[in-house]
């Protein structure tokens, strides 16, 4: 390459270059070798990387220089709540970079809500690998009108009528799992993380797909989905090479999709044959054929399967986190648990076998306040990565560059001491007083996000958590082996107790 450049300069200075003083000086220079040029280019790119980072960051808090090439990749591999808190405490908006992806993190309620409510400037990107795992054309990546049209159809799957069908499934599956837990009690307290996740996965799969999925496939999907959860780091190694987490997640998704497409096909056959609605897929097919839903009427098996995949994605992880923390909160607060039990006994008329109904749930304000508070104290989702579609003037002083990741953080709003005095404490009572500061500031309750992409599963989630914990309170007692790590958080996409939540269950005493 050096000789080629040299030839070009000769062409410009011809015909008698050697006679000029410049050429004489050039000839006197030592010739530049290829490795030297490569090293120079590499150093130039590193300098450019720092220059671009600082240009984008402008005056935002954040590292003055980014670690070459990888940025904060090592931190994002092992994220900690303490690390996030440091970032949030550094400013209402702050900057970082991972693998040259420029990231703006918002910590205040105002900026967080602004990002969530600006669909012309931002769209959810979940985490960086999500499009590879869930597939580009999954409805969760739609934005604007096409998203709201799609979502209007899906909202039909969470009406009170549909929820009451799901409630029966949730009730019977949680009872079956509790019976199993009690039949094989561990001698010592043991981590309930995976036990709870298994229950939640079976509940979700049966609610979404009913018996259109065989029992052995429930186990297979549940196991495979764990590989998907593990791949959901904020930013992954960019290439899906065999052995990487993203590669494993993509293979897992392929297996899950095969079963889910098969379930969609079977549901259509069952509904065409006049069967009863027994699950979400059935409710969807029935709505399309009988209902007055406007717009698209025909969804392929693959499209339906991708919707269920997105629901599973949210429910198996966030809901498992929510359930585990609630088991822990009840064990650590016997006075609160006693009130829950009193309410359960009263509404169920002392009948421990009585299945939950939506009307009964309406008479359980204390249990519902516990669900709301448990999700606030330990919000499963601490932040929701979005992407800036174009330059986004988020404040008078700062514009998020187009293409950046922009992350609204939910945790700081949920722990705001002005709105939630003693924010670390589990205090369900704060929701029972209509005039409490918590109830006066609903904008702070960001557990499920806000704006056009706010969680579609809110009612489903709160209902499932109430059914599971209400039923557990009716039939079991449990104790928590508290360790130094019980209140600390491990982040596996969502947050879990660092010690896995060590519980010991036994049949209810009295
Ligand atoms: C404790 C449990 C859950 C929590 C904490 C949670 C939280 C969230 C949050 C924070 C978002 C992002 C909202 C935004 O961008 O503003 C979201 C979106 C979503 N959630 Fe949930 N979620 C939970 C359970 C579920 C369940 C069980 C389902 C399944 C039915 C579900 C389905 C979804 C979907 C499909 C979206 C994307 C909605 C859209 O883009 O329109 N979630 N969730």
TrEMBL record:
It comes from the Eukaryota. GO terms for molecular function: C-22 sterol desaturase (NADPH) activity; heme binding; iron ion binding; monooxygenase activity. Its cofactor is heme. Its EC number is 1.14.19.41. Heme binds at residue 455. InterPro entries: Cyt_P450, Cyt_P450_CS, Cyt_P450_E_grp-IV, Cyt_P450_sf. PROSITE patterns: CYTOCHROME_P450. CDD domains: CYP61_CYP710. It is an enzyme of class 1 (oxidoreductase). GO terms for biological process: sterol metabolic process. Keywords: Heme, Iron, Metal-binding, Monooxygenase, Oxidoreductase. Belongs to the cytochrome P450 family. This is sterol 22-desaturase.
